[in-house]
């Protein structure tokens, strides 16, 4: 009888030990599965899929502070290309200028009004002149806020009989504003001014 009780006690200890091992293993596996699930969800929240030309492109979301200089440089480049790339068509000019003015303060509007008052845009249309802009480099000082920038670019003015290349240097400041469809980078150009705008060379067509 004692032997039977001993066998029962031993079997009970084995079952209890096995049960503890199974429960502990299950808890560890469950904890690991939860950890991996939360980790995967966090990673997926930082991914954005963009549909472009019928193709799904994967993008990653980062904190703004990681990309301030890159976004600021692209904002300045986009503004200058919209403001200075012109064709002899009033609607094309208005579309580009309107988009550009969303990205800057009154200093850009003042520059536009001055050009319009001088008959610059009317001359472009009447003389069938096109203007293109190539941005060479943009320097951003991200150490101080608002961020000071200087843009170095070349204007290509295409006339019926010639092509004129002009050196263009502008500078200003960038401050943070809310992002929108009209201003996706969330910057506003302030105190924008042209430092230099002179002819480099003229080519006959």
Question: Mean pLDDT, nearest integer?
Answer: 86
Tally of individual helices: 5
Helix content: 40-55%
Under the CATH scheme, which class of the largest domain?
Alpha Beta
Mind telling me the C-alpha Rg? 32 Å
Output the helix-strand order: HEEHHHHEEEE
Strand content: 25-35%
- Oligomeric assembly: single chain
CATH architecture of the largest domain: Roll
Strand order of the largest sheet: 3-4-5-6
Provide the descriptors you would attach to this structure in a database record.
single chain; Nuclear Transport Factor 2, Chain: A; 2 domains
What does this structure look like?
The structure is a single chain. Helix content is 45%, strand content 34%. The protein is α+β, with helices and mostly antiparallel strands and 205 residues long. The protein has 2 domains: 2-47; 64-204, Roll (Nuclear Transport Factor 2, Chain: A), CATH 3.10.450.230. Strand 1 and strand 2 (55-60) form a beta hairpin. The radius of gyration is 32 Å and the shape is rod-shaped. The chain has helices spanning 2-45, 68-84, 90-101, 106-117, 120-126; strands at residues 47-52, 55-60, 130-141, 147-158, 162-176, 187-204. The strands form 2 sheets. Strands 3-4-5-6 form a 4-stranded antiparallel β-sheet, with helices on one face. It has a two-stranded antiparallel ribbon with strand order 1-2.
